[in-house]
Each structure stands twice: as structure tokens, then as C-alpha cells.
Predict the structure.
Amino acid sequence: MMSEEYVSLRTPQVIQYIIELYMVSKVKPSILLLGPPGIGKSVGVKTAAQQIAKMLNKQFVEYDDSKYEEIMKSPNDYFVFVDLRLTEVEPSDLLGIPRAVNGTMFYIPPSWASVLSKAPGILFLDEITQVQRDDIFAVAHKVLLDKMSGFTRFRDDVMVIAAGNTPKDSPIARALPSSLINRVIVIYVSRPEITEWAEYMNDTYEDEWERSVLAYLMYQPNDFYEPLNPNELERLYNFATPRTWTMAAIRLYELLHNSHATAELIRATLTGLLGSTIGSKLYAFITSKVDVEEVLRNPGKFASLDLDKQYFVLASAADMYNVAAYRYGDADMNHDEGAMKEAMDRMQLIENFLDRAIIKPKINHWKEFMTVFFVLLSNKARGKYMPRRLFWDRVISKNRELASFLGELANLKKQVVAQ
């Protein structure tokens, strides 16, 4: 059982921890990540591997057998990420296969192990606590601790990371031997903050996710993660986690941009990913009936809206600001002064709305409103213009209080300046 004395790291902190530990360690230690399902453990390890590859100026490769020959031609050019789900492997997938050569027994290693004996990288052993077969667990134990597959030793700059759920999070999770625990760095992982999840979505999917999902989550933050009921660790209906919110935001974007997607299809998809209650609430939110244009031109009407409609207006306004900023950038590249003025007028309309409806009067939830709007702005540049940076320079940088709490609340100021 996890002791309350342990300090847990949120998913973004785990990513940074893995990166820093890898970079400062000559011989890479093994790590065990433990936490609830769906909070981003697996994605976090892969993200860390991608960033390490970039820092080492090597090409990131997520390994599959089709890439073996390419990597082995010049292994030092690559940083290899090998992802093995332990509930889906046989012992030979981890250990290799014995073969007699001239009367002597040798192990022929799996292809991925041969690669990690020649190239730097990360081996990720997922679902280690869910392994039910003792033979597979014994081999995984050896790989994690000895950093070997059979008798093929990995390079010193290969890090092995395992992950799993705790017994309180999964009906099939097993406790691990003390001999294993005592030889690895054990990190307990907790879910990310909503704004951290949004930054991951921006960085990973850029503009191809439905940003109104973030507005909903800021409106209903308790829906971001549905705690597991100990009596319902096995179930036949879905529940909300950062993982299912990621899937919902991606699928919703695709459906809303497909003219053939019906209301029934959208609602069924959301409830199928998030459960009936939360999925239905999200559907009601994205189908809110409010004249956004009217509210933008008459900021005084914003305060009289219900809270869900206020968040919906902010999500819509952020999308409009993104479009206007990109149009401004395109017009600037094409030297189209008329189009530049039209786009600038649109941005100023939205900036004026925010100033009069939210910033100056400091209405209830004003900090949450501004955080939602800012995080929903795209951090993808078109030409020399990026919507988020434009808004920072034009609005936030001129308001000390706004800049201070946004920077502290979501750690966004540093990211914008760096970009």
C-alpha cells in the first residue's frame, strides 16, 4: 500500500524529473512509476524520451522491428524508445531464445535488446504490477534491475523505466518484491493540473483538438478526474481521466469538423469516453445557445450570463482571436493592408471585450476566465505572429497583476517568452 508519507509528482514534474536524472547520471538508474490509470504515466515517459533526444541532438525513434536495420547502421545517431507492455509478452520476448552453437548454448536476443546494446535510449516496461504470470514477472524483474536481456547488456546510457498501478487502483495489481523496490527509484505519480494538461494538448496536437473542452473543465474542474470507487475497480462503463479527456478533445475536434457527424454520434462518443453523466454534461456545454458575437460587442451582457455560458463565450472568443491573429500574419506576409486592418480590428474587439467585461470590473472567476482564454490561444506561429504571444504583448504585459497571476498559476509566462 502507498504510504501517505510519500510525496507524489504530477505528470509534468515526472517528465522533468526523468530528463534531469538522465542528463546528470553517467550510469542511468532504473525508475518505477506508480499511480492510478489514465493520468499520463506512459505518455510522460515517451515525452521525456523525445525531449532527451532533442537535448542530445539525436534522432528520436519509437522502436519497431521495421526500424532495426536503419538504426543498427548508425546507432549513435539515434535515441531509441522501446515500449513493452508486459501483460502482452512472453518470457522469450524479454529474454531471447536459446540456441546451441558448436555445442555451446547461446541466447539470441530480441531485436530491441540488440538495438539497446548499441544505441542510447529508454526501455519502458509498462503494466509491471498487472503481470499475473510469475515466469514473465521474474524475467521483467531481471531486465529492470540488471539492464540485460538474457546475456545481452544494454549500453550505460540506456535508462529502464517501469510503470504500473497500485493495488488500490486496479483489481489485478500486485505488490512487488522488496528486493525489487529496494533497487529502483520509486516515484508516485499524480494527475496533472488542468492547465498542465492543456499545455500538453497544445504542444502535442497544436490546433487539432477541441479547445472548448478546456473551457468546460475550468467550469467543472471536479470532472477532470473521476476517483475510482474501491468497489468498482472492474466495470463495463468508462470514466473521466486525463487520458479519456485527451481522446475526447481529439475526437470532438474531428467530429465538429466533419459535416456528416450527427448530434447522436457526437453525444455517443462523449458518453462512451467519459461516462454517461460527464459526457452528457460536456455535450450540453458545447451545444450551448448563446450569441457570442452579440456579447463581444456588448461586454456588459457577459456578467448576466450563466457560468457555463460565460466559459463557452471565452472558448469561442479564443478561437476567434486565433483566426484573426493568423489572418493578420498572412496579410502581413502578402502586404495586404486592408486585410491586416480587418484582422487587427477583430483582435481589438475581443481585447476590448475582455478588458470591459472581465479585467477592469474583476468579476467573479475573473482569474479563471483569463487563464482559460490565454491557454486556449494557439502557441503555433504563422510567419512571425503567434496568437498567444500577440495577446501577451498587447494585453497581459501591460497589466502587472494579470501577468503575475498567469505566470504563477499556469507557469505560462516563461513558456511564452521562451517561444
Remarks:
- Confidence is low (pLDDT under 50) at residues 409-419.
- The two ends are 42 Å apart (CA to CA).
- DSSP finds 19 helices and eleven strands in the chain.
- The first helix runs from residue 11 to 24.
